[in-house]
TrEMBL record:
It comes from the Bacteria. GO terms for molecular function: hydrolase activity. Keywords: Hydrolase, Magnesium. Its cofactor is Mg(2+). The keyword Hydrolase applies. It holds the Pfam family Hydrolase. This is HAD family hydrolase. The lineage of its organism: Bacteria, Pseudomonadati, Pseudomonadota, Gammaproteobacteria, Oceanospirillales. It comes from Vreelandella janggokensis. Coiled coil: none annotated.
Amino acid sequence: MTSLKAITFDLDDTLWDNSGVMARTETGHYGWLRENLAAWLAERCWPSWGLGFDQGLEDYLQRRKRLALEVPERRGDFTWLRLRALEAQLETQGLPRSAATLWAAAAMNEFHRLRVQVTPHPEAAELLSDLGQRYRLAAITNGNIHLKRQPLAGYFEVAIAAGELLAPKPDPTAFLTALERFEVAPHNAMHVGDSWEEDIVPALRLGMHAVWISEERHDALPKGVHQIGHVRELRGVLAALKTPY
């Protein structure tokens, strides 16, 4: 019988389908910024926004990419990259630094409001509720979803945004942080995620069990890796390991 004490979960495309979420969030928060800033500028009789929507959105993206190269330790801290890129764009458009800082922060608040509007898989809440009675549960994500506002937040004792640690997956820091907080050895823990490189590889290197969510079938998997097509199948993995679930 496997002595499993803790399970860590990736979030995006593991506990919910993230397709479309980022596109809606990206255009939504940027559109909110342009609309509200335009009204603010008009009230003050200041020059209007000089960039078209598509041009501005592309400029915003390129600024984030440049920042990630210029400040590599922040490459996984997507909130920081977005905030600084918006501040710089707004200043370039003629806003005073104080106004650029305030408007960028307001736009990022709208970003986080939209970002948490994900729909967990129907089975996710019941699954986490059941597992939480038997195991310590943690969330580990490279995404910049607001961890305390996401809809499944209440099921996780520990939640870690790896980018904010300046150590995005596959760096092992986030995994080690969760294990340390739980005081659990790697061989007594399991990680569940959809990315081979960012979830499964680092978990294996640490000696954790790993469950890879992928609909692409692979017959020759390393020892310690279990493949499922959907998180609902996790109970079957735990049963096969003869660990209580």
